Structures are given as structure tokens and as C-alpha cells.
Amino acid sequence: MESSIAQDVDSFDQLDLSPVMRRALRHAGFEKPSPIQAQLIPFALDGEDVIGQARTGTGKTAAFSIPILEQLDSLEDCRDPQAIVVVPTRELADQVGREAERLARGVDTEIAVLAGGKNITRQLRQLENGVQIVVGTPGRLHDHLQRRSLRTDSVWCVVLDEADRMLDIGFRPQIERILRRCPRDRQTLLLSATLPPTVRRLAESYMSQPRVIDCSKNEMAVETIEQRYFTVAQNRKGDLLDRLLEREQPEQAIVFCRTKRGTDRLYRQLKHTHDNCGSMHGDMQQRERDRVLQSLRDRKLKILVATDVVGRGIDISTISHIINYDVPQDCDDYVHRVGRTGRMGRDGVAFTFVVPGEGEVLTSIEQRINKELKRDSIEGFEAVEPPPKPKVVEEDSEPARKRLNPMHRKVRRRL
Ligand code: AMP
User: Fold this and answer.
1) Distance between CA 415 and CA 47 in Å, rounded?
2) For the domain with range 225-375, which CATH number is right: 3.40.50.300, 2.30.30.100, 3.40.5.10, 2.40.180.10?
3) What distance in angstroms lies between residue 61's CA and the mean position of ligand 1's atoms?
4) How confident is the model over 80-124, as pLDDT tens digits?
5) Distance 40 CA to ligand 1 centre (A)
6) pTM for this predicted structure
């Protein structure tokens, strides 16, 4: 794998795009390419395999959609799929499909979203009528492969979006089968927030001399977001949430809970005091989840209580506040949650409720984002307990790599 730095690109005009694409970009309100777009598009247009380390909120969907759309044969010339985009969740599949449609403006383009939980008959009909781009979840794509309804002979590009997440969820077998069924000389673009060994192994087996682009630093998604935390006793979180919503008057907020039951419980409490609130978690029917998302998009919902699984696909630019009612289970989840606001450099604010004993989690989040969260307070909700004695870590016992990170020095503290 070779790390690559592309030329400085600060305008779409420098990217060798067709006039119709440039018009579509203007229409979408995209003024200049985001870093991942500036770097990935030239390599992808050259037909190279690319690994892009980037998260949602950084413009990665357009980064892989633009080169695909630019190189598609018309439906008259080819009725079978030419590009397959594999994504971890149904919501993300819808979102990628919508973004690709938007960028295809001005050119008739058939895009099929093949997500699980959706009517398969309709998908079969769509495939039968001819499609150019397929966006789908691994399970449903695999299902179509088995039914022979998804033909792969003409596929020249496969995108693995949020590859780390897909592998975490356990989709490796399906992803491998999809890749094995596509022509060997295809192009493969892999997008991932992190590049753990599992992702690297997948890349080594199925990609050819990929260029590696690292846009994980300088993340617009969390850089522009004000991030604060409250310390609060578990049984006072509900009251704190009420007070915080009253103080902040969010345009739209997502409140993240750790469990489905917790989400239901909080939603039942909130709906007594807030008319326009909704909830969303993995046990809900797909149709219901779509309906809730649409209401959020239409701004009929002001507050959404959600779990991580469904929260991570949400791309709605009007979300002004993220509230981590429960701290996320891992640091990547934190970045994904917080990235739901402040989309593409807009302002946003994120609050995290931390109960005594969760100080370590807060510390690892801060190490992950390389930034200290500011402590916030509301009258009656000042720090709940004096900090325990900080754990003494022998400076010399830390691995050398860790010591390079200044956050490791700053964060031994509190709660
Ligand atoms: P993504 O990371 O693909 O989920 O994109 C996040 C949001 O940024 C989406 O709403 C995109 O439509 C938007 N976006 C992507 N690229 C650009 C750009 N170059 N300029 C402005 N907005 C963009």
C-alpha cells in the first residue's frame, strides 16, 4: 500500500469533470471539493484502486460517486450494473442513493438501492428493467447474487463504504462473496474511518496496489463542533436533559442512548413534555424508521432519541445539537454520533452526559479526538462528586508512541 498525496485542489474546475457534472455540483451547492474529494477523485478517474480514510460528514459519498457517474456507460449501451456500492446500514444505503441521484442531475441514470428490510419484489423488477449503479447492504446484495437477479459481469467499480463498520458487524463473508463475483480487473474503492488489520487484510486480498489517502486528521466533521460534557448522577439524567433542552432551544437534536430499551424509555418520558419528538432503533420496522427519518428531514421532528446503529446513517444538515444521554460504547461511535451535527463545516454542538465512574471513557474519547471536552454546568447540575484520586501512570511505563500524543499528558484527571 502506498500513501498518496494528490495535488492541491481548491476548485472543482481543477478536477477534469464534465460540464454537466460541474453544473450538478453547482446546483447541489458544492462550491469547492472537500479534502477527500480533492484527493480521491483524480486517482479514481485514473482507474486506480483507492483506500480513503475518512468519516461520514467529510463528503466521502460524493468523492466516490462523482468518478463513477463520470464514467458510466448509458443504459442503452449496458443494462447490467456497472458499479456496486456496499454500505453497512439501510439508512446509509438510502442516503448514498439520494446523493448519487442528486449528482447525476442532467443525465438519465438508473440507480437501485438494494437494502434489507425493503420489498424485494420491487428490487427484482428494478434490476430486471436495467440499472447502472447499485447501492446496497451486504446481506441483501448477497441475497440478490444468490437469486442471480444481480448480474456482476459488467461491474467495473466496487465501493466498500464504511468498511471498518461492515467488518465489525460481521459482514466479511458477504463482502468477500460480492468481491469474488465481480470481474477481477474492476476498480475497488474502500472508504473507512479507521484502518485496523481486518480492513488492511481485506484490502490486501481484493485490491490491486491501492493508493492510500488519509483524511482522518483535519476532520471537518468534528473539528467545527463545540463539544462539552456534564457530570451527572444516573437518576438525574432525565432532569438534566429537560433543563439542557430548555437552555439550548435546539433547531433539531438527536439524543443518543445505548440500548433499545433505554431509547424507548426516554422517548416515553420526553413525549409528555415535547410534541415533536420521535425515536428510532434497530427493532423498529424499516418502514417506521424511514417515516421517522423523513419527519426529521421535513423538520416535523425536533428531537430524535436514537441508538448508534440507526443514528450513524443520518445526514441532515439542520441538526444543531447532539446529546449523548449515555456515553458511547467506543470512541468511534462518539465520532460518528457527534459527526451528525456540524455537517460539512457548519456549526454544531455536542453534549455528553458522564456518570461517576465513566471518567475513563471520557478520557479515551478525548485521546481519540485529540481534544479536551469542556465541562459544562447548569444550576443544580454542577459536578456531582469530587474527583477521585487520579490514577498514577508512570510516564516511563507508557509506550513511546503514546507519549508523543500531548493529550495523554493532559487527560489523567477528574470524575
Ligand atoms: P458525506 O460525508 O458524504 O455524508 O457528506 C456530508 C454532507 O456534505 C452531505 O450533505 C453532502 O451533500 C455534503 N457535501 C459533500 N461534498 C460537499 C462539498 N464539496 N461542498 C458542500 N457540501 C458537500
Assistant:
1) 52
2) 3.40.50.300
3) 7
4) 999 999 999 888 999 999 999 999 999 999 999 999 988 999 999
5) 14
6) 0.65
